[in-house]
Write a structure and sequence with these properties.
single chain; alpha/beta; three-stranded parallel sheet; 5 strands
């Protein structure tokens, strides 16, 4: 994105079982000041001692699919790129389609 000087909005939604599985900062810290990127991290077993990494990361308890509500995205005009466990991918595809999204890549 930085090499292509991409200026659009990017939202990353990452899910993991616990904070020990959260590797997102390893890959995105270098981009936080150079791109318009928002990162939401869902940790299913969020412990009482798990804390916000910084203002850059939005850490939430639960699962990725919680992010997909009727008013969250402009589903018809958004590209969705999915990867992960097949059950999560299938559930997310179903939600995106339910809200009118068709630009889904996985």
């Amino acid at each position: 994105l930085t090499k292509q000087k991409f200026t659009g909005n990017v939202t990353v939604i990452f899910g993991c079982l616990n904070d020990a599985d959260n590797f997102i900062s390893k890959y995105f810290d270098e981009y936080k000041d150079s791109t318009n990127i928002k990162i939401h991290i869902f940790i299913e077993n969020l412990g009482a001692n798990d804390k916000q990494l910084s203002d850059y990361y939005n850490i939430l308890p639960g699962r990725v699919t919680q992010m997909f509500t009727a008013d969250k995205f402009d589903y018809k005009n958004t590209d969705f790129y999915l990867c992960g466990h097949p059950n999560m991918v299938n559930a997310t595809i179903e939600l995106i389609r339910q809200f009118g999204g068709n630009n889904i890549y996985y």
